[in-house]
Amino acid sequence: MTKFYQYALMGTIVLAGAAGFTACSSSDDAPIDNPHYNPETNEVNASFVFNVSTGNTATTRQTAEATQATENELFRGIDNAVLFSYKQAGKDGYSLAALPTGGLMDKRYDLSEILAPNTIDKDNSHRVIETSLPLNTNTLVFYGKAIEGTASAADANRGFTAYDLYGHLDDYNPGYDTNLGTANFELGRRMTPENVGNFRRIEELLSGVLTCIMYTNLMDDRHVDIEATAHPSNDDNIPAYGFDVATTEYPELKWADYSNSDTKSPVETSHTLYPLEKKLADAYREMTTIKQSAGELRAGSGLALEMTMQDLWSVINEVRCATPLNKPETVAKYLAERVNERLQEYFTATSLPVDGTNVTGVTFRSTDHIITSFISDVWPTTAGTKPTDFDAIKNLSMSRFPQMFHIPDGSTHLAFDRDKQAFNYVWNYNTSAVGDASGFTVESYYYPAELLYFGNSPIRVSNTEHKPNTYPNGVANWDDDLQWDTADWTKNSHVTSSTQSVAMQNDVNYGTALLKTTIRYGASTLNDNNHAIQKEKDPSISDTDEPDNTINVSGTTFQLISVVISGQPKKVGWDFTRKADDNEVGYINDMAISDEAARIPAYTEGGSKSSPNYTLVFDNYKNTPTGQEKVYIALELRNNSGQDFFGLHNLIRNGSNFYLIGELDPATVSDFTWPTHHALPPYNADGSTIKEKRVFIQDFMTSADFVIGANSLKYAYLTVPDLRYSALTLGLSVDINWSTGLNFDNIILGGE
Predict the structure, then answer these.
(1) Helix 327-346 and helix 302-320: axis angle, to 10°?
(2) Quick check: 396 and 197 in contact, CB under 8 A?
(3) Among 716, 281, 690, 740, residue whose Cα is nearest residue 514
(4) What pTM was computed for the model?
(5) Which neighbouring-strand residues pair with 457?
(6) Fewest CB within a 10 Å sphere: which of 102, 236, 581, 709?
(7) Could you tell me the CA-to-CA distances from 518 to 158, 587, 609, 656 in Å, in that order?
(8) Mean pLDDT, contiguous 10-residue spans, the chain (752 residues)
(9) Contact 434, 587 (CB under 8 A)
(10) Do 184 and 171 form a contact (C-beta atoms < 8 A)?
(11) 658: Cβ–Cβ under 8 A, 6 or more apart, which residues?
């Protein structure tokens, strides 16, 4: 996200008596006269005072502005604020450790917009409202969220919505009435049901187009009789070279026949493939060989398909413009003409040279035209029923798929079914190789969380009326008992009939966690995976042949496009940890990367980091005996190096997007310091913190310093087929620390 949170409400809630505050009475408390005390309801009217800290180390996502991640960011305000009061029997001085019976609290206060934007700073942090409080109250629980932001015209022009910038929840619900057991905070799905339907229609259309192109054949209505003597003057200009009779018939075959296992010519079966036939065979194999079992993720975005079709068209153009030297090559040339026809039905090119050189500027034709061509095109019977329901997407641009839905390129993965001779998109997949998520779909992408606030605290009480400007200001002062007059204030207490002022003892903190992401290069020259890729294709290659290609990095070589975070619980409950009865998890996808955070500086000794990107997330604590889970982060990067290079399984084209994966393992970090002035969820029975390290802890910022090392490119995901007869590589490392001292040092991702 490009906006971030800095004003951790690491401050306080204060309840101050407006004119003599009477509160909870126990059997030992003698009631006193108090005009603000209502004996019928056992409540006292009081001033409700908020103290907000602006200097906490905890921060959140998106931009510093949206997440208030730094002290100089303006306070975004708090609305949808709700306060619950509760009487824990015999537990003065305790936070609420678990939900009460039935989840029912004593009273609920809907405070709405409790603080407007920019109304507080570190030196002026109070806000007073009138409310009432039941007697015997000894625990207060507070919820709130930052006031929603808006996207500027510049942000909108970059394709960012307010949800991208500030996060979005599908449900912000601190509970129905006083039932805290019904509290639910739910990440917002990026895909609406309507968009899911259109997304799948686009996938059916694009995979169908690829199926038709690769099914090009000389069979049935494509089977042609040609008179050898007349052939040189026909429209296709296919010479009759190699035909020794006056009239002959091209053999019935399809493109796939060139890719047979024994590499024999489909026209002259006793002979190996001729040069033009081999070009067709190699192109077919590259297009249809997708190593899913090995983890290959074949890019299926509109941009990736345009690049792939440009490469494929260049091969086809070379064959169709060549001069055949024999009968089999004549057939290959004729088939190439048929493929060329198919390509022109679906794509346009700025240049389609007649000398057989590379085709350039390939883009999709209008979707309406593509649909019409697809409906009338030849379809393999093995592929099942041809889809035809495309009216809802006819005005959408295929070039912008899937970005039009505000989800990353990594949400589109192609597969090829050899039995059906058809392409399809993988619907249940491990998105961008992030963690164990084989059952995830495009519906598993969420917006970042919103900036939320949470307080759970015992109280201080005073028998004196205090004015708003008499309370300690700021977190440090608020948490310092010496700043409170011990002769006046009683810590770890409850409201009595003589109480006139009440203060929330612990700070109100962020309910969300924050990921701070930076990237740097670990070397000035990066190696790709060319040698391994070429060796796999041709085992006879020696260890010194086909060396890895290298990329000399600069300040513009790669660009950060988005951050994808695995293992995020979709729903959390009253304490902002995942619900025990809900295991739904997915990916937070942060696409609103600022220009500064997107730039990766050129390599320097010691490493120059990018500006940070901030992403708001939920705490990922999981109640399990096997330890806390690892979190995988996928960095979506754009290759602006001017070179193509080979990733883990295939080719990363210049100008295309790819992924590098980082692993954050809390078990590798030993120096995290837990806060001492308040407890963090989840809680032990006594209200203290269950001290289990996990990657994301609410109210804390996890810092991840990703390093693209010398061999990181060897592990790049989301690739296209290599149709150019060349090669390249990719890799990454991570150094992670938490705001209170948790550090991951120089973890190289996938390389050395």
Answers:
(1) 150
(2) no
(3) 740
(4) 0.88
(5) 140
(6) 581
(7) 21, 19, 6, 21
(8) 47 45 34 55 53 40 52 75 93 95 94 76 60 86 92 90 96 96 96 94 98 90 45 44 49 89 87 94 95 87 97 95 88 90 96 94 98 94 95 97 92 93 84 57 93 91 80 79 90 86 84 91 95 92 94 96 92 94 88 94 89 94 88 92 95 94 84 84 94 92 89 91 47 38 46 52
(9) yes
(10) yes
(11) 636, 637, 638, 639, 647, 652, 716, 717, 718, 719, 730
Measured distance CA(318)–CA(354) in Å, rounded: 9
Edge-to-edge strand order for the sheet containing 298-299? 298-299, 413-417, 422-425
* Structure-token pair, residue 535: 């060796």
Which residue type does 7 have? Y
| Unique residue bearing structure tokens 């806000």 | 127
Evaluated on CA atoms 449, 450, 451, 455, the torsion sign reads negative
Q: Map residue 409 onto helix, strand or coil.
A: helix
E strand map for 24-125: 37-38, 43-51, 78-86, 107-112
Q: How many residues does the chain have?
A: 752
**Which residue's structure tokens are 């940070």?**
612
Residue with tokens 């003597």: 229
Within 10 angstroms of residue 662's Cβ, the number of other Cβ atoms is 27
CA–CA gap between residue 298 and residue 607 (Å, rounded):
32
Q: Is the CB of residue 734 less than 8 Å from the CB of residue 665? A: no
